[in-house]
User: What shape does this take?
Amino acid sequence: MHILVTGAAGFIGYHLSERLLARGDEVTGLDNLNDYYAVSLKEARLARLQRQPGFRFTRADLADRAALDAIFAQQPFDVVVNLAAQAGVRYSLENPMAYINANIVGFTNLLECCRRAMPRHLVYASSSSVYGMNTNMPFSVHDNVDHPVSLYAASKKSNELMAHTYSHLFDIPTTGLRFFTVYGPWGRPDMALFLFTRAILAGEPIKVFNRGDMRRDFTYIDDIVEGVVRVIDTPATPNTDWNGDAPDPGTSTAPYRLYNIGNNSPVQLAEFIEALEHALGRTAKRELLPIQPGDVAATYADVDDLVSAVGYRPSTPIREGIERFVAWYLEHMHKESL
Assistant: This one.
């Protein structure tokens, strides 16, 4: 297949593109290489992709409708995977317009391109953040998610609603994936594992929010990519049992699906830090802080629907995943100062 991967120089986009290329797909990667975090890290990921046959790269912004139209005019795509987004809960408090431009305007432009081009499947990144004030654990795609607590979460919920509209009106198969705290080699520098590792190696204290009383469904990148690939190959179909009297938020009479993609095994932040200390052979200095605006105390993914649909089963224990990350960090970040 020929697959468009937006956000190809990002963490998940890079790993997904590598996996698709390895199995023989052609990949057109799109990224705007913005400076939300170090561009050098994005360029290093991209350089590794550009050495592989079957990969093409276009630097463009989803919010640039003319650029996106030109890309679709040049090449038909069998599948579109949208991983380009302005990420980060805390940053949405500082720069809300970045989320509107990238996550709302950009996604609208992509949907319009798909309406005209009609790929066999549009897969897009949502987020566990959409669960917001929900406290019923584990989080289920069949639960209502109308109470987000950050603009980032609201923008991702909006993507789900927009995708449903296009699935309903234009019969475009769309699948939204709610990612749960993805970690691993070539990860994002604004995520806890990256920040903690850098601080511990520098002998600096790590910032532990909610005084450590946090649980996250940390999910290793290889498990995420395995799930995404399986979803790519399984276009969304209508739920013939859907009933408007008792509407199921995770499905529809349209070819529309939502799935959680997580580890299905939340980890206490203290255990996470201990695993990192063990991998680094150093003890962290902890600075205990209150919970930050927009954060939630716990996440826990119910992945039963994804298991049923594509046979997804995460398999990487937290200690093993952290050890792999640390090995990568010491080789690349420490050595190359990316």
Summary: The mean pLDDT is 94. The chain has eleven helices and 13 strands. The two ends are 33 Å apart (CA to CA). The CA atoms of residues 12 and 285 lie 30 Å apart.
